[in-house]
Each structure stands twice: as C-alpha cells, then as structure tokens.
C-alpha cells in the first residue's frame, strides 16, 4: 500500500522563500524530499521550484533592503560603508 500523498501549503512555502530559504530547507520544513517538493510545485501549475522561488523570494529581498536603508538613515556607519561598497 503506497504512502499517503503529502500536500504542501503554497502560502507557507512563499513565506519560507521570502526568508531566502533554500530548496532543501523548504523540503525539510514540509518533511519531504526535494523531488517531491518539485513535483508538488509542478502540480500547482508552475514550471518548477526555481520559477516559483524566483518570484517569491523578491519580497524578502525588498524587506531586507528597506531595513538596510533605515539603518543607514539612522546613522549606522557600518551599514553606510557596506552599502557604499555594494553600490
């Protein structure tokens, strides 16, 4: 008798990706393998994990950048230097 199919919550996956979690971290969170995670994302109508991740990692990057700029505006010299070197 086959194992019951494990479903994943795509909204939870989006939150994990916003935190910049990797494929293996996301799979571990749901208690599944990377191929199973890939299959569930394809079943949801996406090309695969990479396409889904590329879209849903962006809010986390935006949030991080927002916090970095706030830190600079508050006078954090280390962050000013770091951002200056990045750009």
Give a structural overview.
The chain has 87 residues and is mainly alpha-helical. The chain has helices at 10-18, 23-30, 34-43, 49-56, 58-73, 77-86. Helix 5 (58-73) crosses helix 6. The chain starts with 9 loop residues before the first helix and ends with a helix.
The percent range for strand residues is: under 5%
> How many E strands?
0
Number of helices: 6
Q: Biggest sheet, open or closed, and with what strands and sense? A: none
Distance between the termini: 57 Å
Q: Rg, please?
A: 17 Å
The structure class reads mainly alpha
What would you call the shape?
A: elongated
Order of helices and strands: HHHHHH
Give the rounded overall mean pLDDT: 94
Question: In which range does the helix fraction lie?
Answer: over 70%
* Unreliable parts: none
Jot down its keywords.
single chain, 87 residues, mainly alpha, 6 helices, 70% helix
Question: Concise description?
Answer:
This protein is 70% helix and 0% strand. It is an all-alpha fold.
What is the fold's blueprint, element by element?
Blueprint: H1 10-18, H2 23-30, H3 34-43, H4 49-56, H5 58-73, H6 77-86
Helix pairs in contact: 5-6
